[in-house]
Structures are given as structure tokens and as C-alpha cells.
Amino acid sequence: MPSLPMTIPRSLEALAPDLPAGVLDETFRAASERLDRYIGALIREMASALDLASGEQPDPDRLVAERAWSDGGRLAVRWLVETLELYGLTEPTSGGWRLVPGPATAPAAELRAEAERLVPATAPAYEVLALCAAALPAVLRGELRGQDALFGPTTLGLWFDYFSNTNPHYALNNIIAGVAVARAAGTGARVLEVGGGGGSAAEAALAALTQAGKPPSGYVFTELQPAFLRRGTRAVQRVLPEGCEVRSLRFDINFDPAPQGLDGARFDVVFGVNTLHLAHDLTATLVNLRALLAPGGALIVGELLRPTPTAPVHLELPFTLLEEYGHVPLSEGIRERPGFMSASGWMRALDAAGFSEIAVIPAQFERCASIYPGFYCGAVSARA
């Protein structure tokens, strides 16, 4: 597999004919290449700030222990070491690894400014990464919790902008999930969205359903965090097709749906985008969602997908700082490391939960990831 950063081959778009035309075009590829270069510069600066730029260093777990760093930053340190390796900036040693000189690059701040000048809508992606990099030393010293650094009154608007269809570095996940929802649904479908956030996935799904000539008859929007629930509900109401009834409620994927307002409910499609990987007991959550489906109904899991079960994800830094992201049980062949999962892991998990007709969109996801290791967006569909 090639390392990052790289020029994304034009053949990437040809490998995904099951996605809407143009979503992997030159504009998308150029924006992704700029972000990749920025992350390459950022990780060098992070390594320097943490005094990792010279001499032999141990593996991430030993590094955290030897430096007496807080466990709250353990996943972020693992991300940093793995991403340095992904960018070809480390070499193995007898006791661990060391940083090696890479091609000269501009400072991260300069690369960010140029990227935002060319495509202003990408600014939230850069701001989130910069925020995380700045917070990590304090998190490792135990002075700050990752979730406090990232989510607060002053940063809430940033996350609404990040999880938005105007942000090209996030929108693709929503677009793919929307395509999968539209393909799985019939006209007049009853749709349930779990973990809807600020409503951007709902916007994409409803647009795809409308474009396919399949307006739903009902849409239930759920989210756990109250601020996102309010924002997401308003977003759904703005784009709801005529005649479609909408309902919103607070919902936690880790608990029985019935006491949470879904007792006796049956849906034709249940979907979530970048939500279900947070389930504490993944099989139990998937079984609960299958019970909410009408016979033959579909579950759509829109997720950032690891290229392989244990592969690093160079966009993952923000999530590694969140406690709930890392505190999940692992399962061989399904979830082999905390956080995001691979397509094969999702397929095994859905099979274990009793689903059938399991498929990945794009169908050649693994081939896409093999020619560009930064390709992570996909959806997994399954029938009850």
C-alpha cells in the first residue's frame, strides 16, 4: 500500500461507479491532497513539541508510561506514531522507532492558509485538527480532558460546521450513506436515523430519496446530545418532503429502544452515519436495531472505514481524544482496535446480529483504499 502524502490517481473515481458522478472529481482529490500535506507537516510539529524528534523512541504504550503521560492521551499518541509511519517519517529500531528526515515542507500554518484560501469551506477540518494538536500536550500532562478541549460553548459552532455537507472533508460520508438509503428504500418508506448530530446526514439522505423519486412517509430523527438534537431537528424540518411526518427524540444506541420512545415502532430503513462504532456492545445494539425493522427492512451503516482491521486513519486525531471513542470492548475479526472499524469487521458484526444481504458501498472499497490509503468513506447495508 502506498504511503501518504501522494497524488491521488484519477482511477479512484473510475473504481466507484456506484457513487454519484463527480463526488471523487479533481476538486475533491485536490482538496484531499492539500489536507494530506497539512497533516504531514502537523505531525512533524507535534512530534517536535512532544520531544520525539530525536533519538530512539519506544512503542506508544511504553512511551506513555515512561513519560508518565495521562492515559487520556494514549490513543492520540498511538495515532501520532502510526501516522508518522504512514507518512514514511519513521524507521524501526531495535527498541522501537526513530524519526527520519522527510521531504522539506512548508509550516503547517502556511499550508492551512493556502488550502483555506483556495476552498474556504474546508476551514473547519483544519481548525479541528489544529485545535487537537494544540490541546494534546495539556491532555498528556493531565491538565485537560480531550472532550473538554474539543466540546464546549466556544467550539460548538465549529462542530456544526465540521459535520456539514458544506465541508468537503466530511460530506462524502453523508453522500454515500444517502445513496445507500435511497437504494434500500421504497416509496413512502418509514425512516429512522440514529445519532443524527446536526442534521447533515438527514439532509443528504432526504435529498437522495427525493432525487430517486422515493419521498418517505415518515422520518424519525434521533440524537443523544440535546444541542445537536435541536439543531438536527431544525435541519430535517427545512428539507422534509411534502407529506412526510417528522418526529425527533433523544436516543442512546446503547440501551433498549422501547423505553426511549420506540416501543412497537417498525421502520423500512434504519441508518446512522459515524455513530454505531461507539456502541459499547455492538452485537446487542445491532440486534436492537434489527428488531426495529419491518420484515425485509434495511440497516445502513455509514461509517469511516479502516482500509484493514488494524490500519491507522490519518484523519482520526479528533476522535482519539474522546473517552467514549476508546472505551469499547474489542472483538477478534470484528473490532480489533478502538474506534472506527473495517468493512470486513462491519460485515462480520452484521452477520453475527442476524442480518443478511450484507454489502459495501462503494463495492470496490478495498481496491479504492489500496490505491489511495486516505480513502475511508463508505457504507455497509444489510437486510433484516
Descriptive key words:
384 residues; 7-stranded mixed sheet; single chain; 15% strand; two-stranded antiparallel sheet; alpha/beta
Describe this structure in words.
The protein has 2 domains: 11-162, no CATH class; 168-383, Vaccinia Virus protein VP39 (Rossmann fold, 3-Layer(aba) Sandwich), CATH 3.40.50.150. The mean pLDDT is 96. The chain has helices at 11-14, 26-49, 60-66, 74-86, 108-118, 123-140, 146-150, 156-162, 168-184, 200-211, 226-239, 282-291, 317-320, 323-326, 343-352, 365-371, and strands spanning 90-93, 96-99, 190-193, 218-223, 245-250, 267-273, 293-304, 356-361, 377-383. Strand 6, helix 12 and strand 7 (293-304) form a beta-alpha-beta unit. It has 384 residues and is an alpha/beta fold. The protein is 43% helix and 15% strand.
Give the second-level CATH assignment, the architecture of the largest domain: 3-Layer(aba) Sandwich
Strand tally:
9
CATH superfamily annotation of the largest domain: Vaccinia Virus protein VP39
CATH topology of the largest domain, anyone?
Answer: Rossmann fold
Helical amount: 40-55%
- Model regions low in confidence, pLDDT < 50 over at least 5 residues: none
> On the 0-100 scale, what is the average pLDDT?
96
Task: Write down the overall geometry.
Answer: globular
The structural domain count equals 2
Spell the H/E element sequence.
HHHHEEHHHHHEHEHEEHEHHHEHE
